[in-house]
Design a protein that fits this description.
With 425 residues, the protein is an alpha/beta fold. The protein has 17 helices and 13 strands. Helix 11 packs antiparallel against helix 14, helix 13 crosses helix 17 and helix 14 crosses helix 16. The radius of gyration is 25 Å and the shape is globular. The protein starts with a strand and ends with a helix.
């Protein structure tokens, strides 16, 4: 039987989470003889190398990068090694619903969405499979809430057995809070060096889906999907839903539009840039509402990711200096995604008339300056001055002439109001 689906996983320093992800893949209802999983180990220095010894029911390829090549190149390496007609890209710490591969494969085979990239943003969950001493305070608080909730009720048989055992021992039952405190004490006692980890689930628990009691719903922009539907009809920024923690597309689509741009460094935006190329080439972006995905929590520093994301998004904008890419800078300074979408809609109406070329130039300059100021932690002022730099003499006078005509036309009130706000900064 030929390989129909290739699952491409990118791993770096997440041995335990990756192991559990592979265990979860054993539960897929898709025929294992037609499934391959490619694990690209991006120069991990933990125990990830041990995973190559696993015996799994599906075809399994372990690819080792001796030097860290980054997220984009690692994905491209995985794609180059893939034999399937459908490619699924997923983070190595994702746990997939048993029907995930089958559902995605059937959608691509049915042809109903046409040439499509299928995402899993609405049914996205985060889940704790370990308790790690390096978790930030927000993660520890979330874990505590889930732990206490998970231990609120016990099955009748189990409760009776424990009650009988306590009666024989004449011991009082531990409260949920006491059990949690005991777990934290155990975490401190297992400390080795600076870090310590308590593994919460075995392979059998993962296969049985018991991890779901430690999961919490984290949909990506759920209000957007609820308003515009799973096909994002009327939404002008659907590329932001192409997030490679879990997407699928046909191999022919990847070969036509790909590969991932390897100029991105660190975390973020290489998948959005890929999604933008898919979107501009006419590929349908579709959210799959039926199958759940679970992202295993791991230690993270949100501050460093935010800075990496800003730098990479500016690089994305340099590759595609278009209004519907740069306008997302406004989301970093307080604009709502729906306001931004309205701006794109009105800008497209304005651009058709080709009456305001200098105004269009100014918009791109304003957006780029916003990214520059954010990256360097500078005050958000003087945006138009920066947009004017390097322009020919008389550019500012022509800008204000077009700006006056544009406002007087009254045809794009939301775009005009947002630009007025930017110019006032």
């Amino acid at each position: 039987m030929s390989i129909e689906v290739s699952v491409i996983m990118i791993a770096h320093q997440k041995f335990h989470q990756t192991l559990l992800s592979l265990y979860a893949l054993e539960s897929q209802t898709f025929p294992p003889a037609s499934l391959e999983v490619i694990l690209v180990d991006d120069a991990s220095t933990d125990q990830t190398y041990r995973l190559q010894r696993l015996r799994l029911p599906f075809h399994f390829k372990y690819v080792r990068c001796e030097q860290n090549v980054g997220r984009s190149k690692a994905k491209n390496i995985g794609a180059a090694a893939a034999a399937g007609q459908v490619l699924i890209f997923m983070d190595a710490e994702m746990l997939l619903d048993p029907d995930y591969v089958k559902q995605h494969y059937q959608l691509h085979q049915s042809g109903s969405p046409g040439e499509a990239v299928i995402t899993g943003c609405m049914q996205h969950y985060n889940v704790f499979t370990v308790l790690d001493s390096r978790f930030n305070p927000e993660q520890l608080t979330q874990f505590k809430q889930l732990y206490l909730k998970a231990h609120t009720k016990r099955s009748t048989a189990k409760a009776l057995r424990k009650r009988a055992a306590r009666s024989r021992a004449k011991a009082r039952p531990l409260s949920r809070q006491a059990r949690y405190v005991r777990l934290l004490r155990r975490l401190k006692q297992t400390r080795r060096g600076k870090d310590s980890i308590i593994r919460l689930f075995s392979k059998a628990s993962i296969v049985a889906g018991r991890y779901q009691k430690y999961a919490f719903h984290t949909p990506f922009y759920p209000k957007v999907i609820k308003r515009f539907g799973s096909r994002y009809e009327g939404f002008h920024l659907p590329y932001i839903f192409v997030v490679t923690h879990n997407i699928s597309l046909q191999r022919s689509t990847f070969d036509r539009v790909g590969p991932f741009n390897e100029g991105f460094q660190g975390w973020g935006c290489e998948d959005w840039e890929f999604g933008y190329r898919l979107y501009r080439s006419g590929v349908q972006i579709l959210d799959h509402p039926l199958v759940k995905v679970y992202h295993q929590e791991h230690p993270r520093s949100l501050g460093s990711q935010t800075k990496d994301g800003l730098i990479n998004y500016r690089f994305f904008f340099s590759l595609h200096p278009e209004f519907d890419v740069g306008v997302q800078s406004l989301c970093w300074i307080g604009k709502d995604i729906f306001e931004v979408n309205d701006m794109v809609h009105e800008y497209k109406l304005m651009a058709v008339k080709e009456q305001y070329p200098v105004l269009s130039q100014a918009c791109l300059g304003l957006f780029d300056q916003i990214f520059h100021l954010l990256i360097h932690d500078l005050p958000m002022t003087g945006l138009l001055d920066a947009a004017e730099m390097g322009r020919e003499p008389g550019w500012r006078a022509r800008f204000y002439e077009e700006w006056s005509l544009f406002k007087a036309s009254g045809g794009c009130p939301k775009l005009a109001a947002s630009l007025e706000w930017l110019l006032s900064l």
